[in-house]
Amino acid sequence: MMKRVGLLFLSTLLLLTGCWGGDELEKEEKIVQEKGKKDEKAIITGEINTGEKYYRSIFPFEPGGARGVIRYGVDNRLDINEFEMGLMRIAQDTFSTDKYFFQEGQFLNEPTVTNWLKRADEEPGKSKSKLDQTGLNPKLGVKVDEGDPEYKNKMLEANKNNPKYLSYVLEHNYLVQSGDGKVKLGGVVVGLSFNSTYYYDVNQQGLIYPGEVKLEREKVKQEAQKIAGQVASRLRTDPKLKDVPIVFALYQEEERDSVTPGNFFASGVVKKGSNSVSSWEDVDEDYVLFPSDAASKKKRSDYEKFTTFKSKVQEYFPNYIGVIGKGYYKDGNLERLTIEIPVQFRGKAEIISFTQFVATSALGELPNVPIEVYIGSAVDQPEALIVKDETTQEEPFVHIYRK
């Protein structure tokens, strides 16, 4: 029997992976934030009850010291999103969302992050930070005069033999209440992002010669742990970071044109009073594209269910409908599925009818996990959203965009 689905028409939609009502929004809290020698009044934002746990944050908002720099280090927008959101997910293993509050990183400024992404033999730029500014990527190991007729070949070879591994450093701070309505720094999480393919350019007299080298995953892992050790030692030189736990999360990007993001592969904690990660734990996360040969081979059962869903959706229209899914796997199990369906619609009534069909008929063919379905026109215009947020949720949340 087909399930009943309510349609919501709204000019704007606030959705944090779940549906919420006004009675589920907890009241904000007034607190005092300790800042060096002075205290400042602040507010802990109210908590929205969603399908996932999110950290409450501190208002007024304080942007991170390296805000926006990530787009210069990480090429793929999917990787940027996954790196940032996944870092908060890993933080929850050490810093509970019930006890800690999120704040963007305040200790690594833009010049420091930029300097750390350089090679160890490059001259660092000026920074007001007292942290060691030496580059964390391998030395190039060669100096060649641009007038040398072999300049291009020598530089291409030098980059190929000494690739840059580290692509970005992202810092998050976690605050905790210290009594008397005050909050203080309770811990730091540092995400280190690494290349899977190192892309580089050699410039000779205005002519650009591109090159690339694919990096071995085991070598990336070795370099990542070594670089994390260097970062840990540097952070501990700051008196404010001397005695707080620091969590490191290691992430490897996908290639520039990948339609799925990379993944975290290891995490470790620098305990209070220590200058190094005591032990590393493997993180088993992966993103799989549906349909694809990889999904067919690695996730056969989920692949077959998605194929059935796709076939059912395509039966609705006589013309071809593209259906693309991205599955997030943790410890080998499908945790979340995101689906995009671009269709050429002829009117709003057609959109409503098609959305109802997907939500009430086709959706039941998919695995019983949280699902988001984005329905859009062929010109990338969003038309409808379907969210099945809980595995026990009988009726999905449906939103039809009104323009």
From TrEMBL:
Basic and acidic residues compositional bias, start-end: 121-131
A Pfam family this chain is assigned to: CamS
Signal peptide: 1-22
UniProt keyword Iron, yes or no: no
Domain of life, source organism: Bacteria
Disordered, as annotated region: 121-144
Gene3D superfamilies: sex pheromone staph- cam373 precursor domain
CDD domains linked to this entry: CamS_repeat_1, CamS_repeat_2
InterPro entries for this protein: CamS (IPR011426)
Keywords: Signal
Name used for this protein in its record: CamS family sex pheromone protein
